[in-house]
Amino acid sequence: MKEPVFWRTDGGRGSGALARALLAPLGWVYAWAVARRIRKAAPVRIGPKVVCIGNLTVGGTGKTPVTQTLMQRLAAMDITTASLSRGYGGSQAGPLRVAPEAHGADQVGDEPLLLARTGQAWIARDRAAGGRAIDAAGGVDLVLMDDGHQNPDLAKDCSILVVDGVTGWGPGTIFPAGPLREPVKAGLARADAVIVMMPGPDKEPDWSGLGLADLEIPVFHAWLEPAAPPPPGKLVAFAGIGRPQKFFDALVAAGGDLGEVAVYGDHHAFSAGDLRHLDALAAAHEAQLITTEKDWVRLPADARTRIAAWPVRATFANPGALDGLLRDVMDARGELG
Predict the structure, then answer these.
(1) Those residues with Cβ within 8 angstroms of residue 150's Cβ, 6 or more apart along the chain or in another chain
(2) In this predicted structure, what is the pLDDT of residue 13?
(3) In this structure, are residues 173 and 24 in contact, taking their beta carbons and an 8 Å threshold?
(4) Is 101 strand, coil or helix?
(5) Sheet-wide strand order for 81-85
(6) HSE-up of 337 (CA within 13 Å, CB side)?
(7) How far apart are CA 95 and CA 112, in angstroms?
(8) Among the listed residues 95, 77, 81, the one whose alpha carbon sits nearest the alpha carbon of residue 50
(9) Beta-strand (E) ranges in the chain?
(10) 63-76 vs 319-331: helix axis angle to the nearest 10?
(11) What is the pLDDT of residues 171-202, one digit of tens each?
(12) What is each CA distance from 337 to 41, 75, 157, in whole angstroms?
């Protein structure tokens, strides 16, 4: 879905404020349902530790790149890790271990395919069943649950929230009146740490504005950095992610010569017509097509041969403190000396 304009604009006045006011009762029902499910749940405990990388808002905050970075840092600490995702957009319900050479995004979703390029990745719409399957397969010390802060079915040893430091919590209203999945206070009360994603290392988060200044849990500052420079020459960029403009801005900031952009809804399935349109845009600008890694894995195989993927990675201002948090999680039940 594309984010409605009234989630982010109008400053409390005009048509945006009216739309939020009209939808607010539905948001209260949504929040009540989330809270009730969490309150009545009996979470399943598995052998491996479980760290959830979640958020409080609908849409992209950078959870998947953060999960990739955590998988890499845990591997460097000799902690065997598997990611667990819902598999949004895929036909398979799981539990299923993702095999990039055998599965497509239409089967397992784009994010699990991307995570499988970093390490062991599983999908399961039933998170408890997914956790049990990973436990039964053996050899995993820690499960990184990609999304799921509002899912109580699998017991968590640590819950980390990721928030976009620029857009924050939006206007503070609950879906569908706004982007929030639950009230900020309730979500933060169940968190063990927060990661604030900023446009770069020189942009300091507004800790007070986000309500994070007085939290008694770790709060990290992170940003996305390109893993490689943009291709030379004119570029036509397209994206079907939660915040496409962040991708376009990052390309320009890294020196990319951007001639045109095309925006699609999050998890968009690219059709033959979409690809013809993109090819025509590229031809008109005598440009190279480029997209995000997450979009690239959803493209047909023949399209991937002519379209560049631009990889980004989450970088932390204090990676040592992040490693300390992860070690504390493992030490809590004695797995590390």
Answers:
(1) 34, 37, 38, 54, 181, 182, 187
(2) 55
(3) yes
(4) coil
(5) 96-97, 120-123, 81-85, 142-146, 49-54, 158-164, 193-198, 219-226, 312-316
(6) 0
(7) 12
(8) 81
(9) 49-54, 81-85, 96-97, 120-123, 142-146, 158-164, 193-198, 219-226, 234-239, 257-263, 288-292, 308-310, 312-316
(10) 70
(11) 889 999 889 999 999 999 999 999 999 988 88
(12) 33, 16, 18
The Cα 109–Cα 255 span in angstroms is 31
Encoded amino acid at 27, one letter: G
The residues of the chain scoring below 50 in pLDDT are: 12, 334-337
Antiparallel, parallel or unpaired: β 158-164 and 142-146: unpaired
Residue-level pLDDT at 1: 56
**Which token pair is 214?**
């007085």
Quick one: tokens of 148? 């799921």
Under DSSP, the state recorded for 181 is S
Tell me what pLDDT residue 183 has.
95
- Which has the closest alpha carbon to 132: 155, 109, 150, 152? 155
Angle in degrees, CA 147, 1, 8, rounded to 5: 85
**Which amino acid is it at 19?**
A
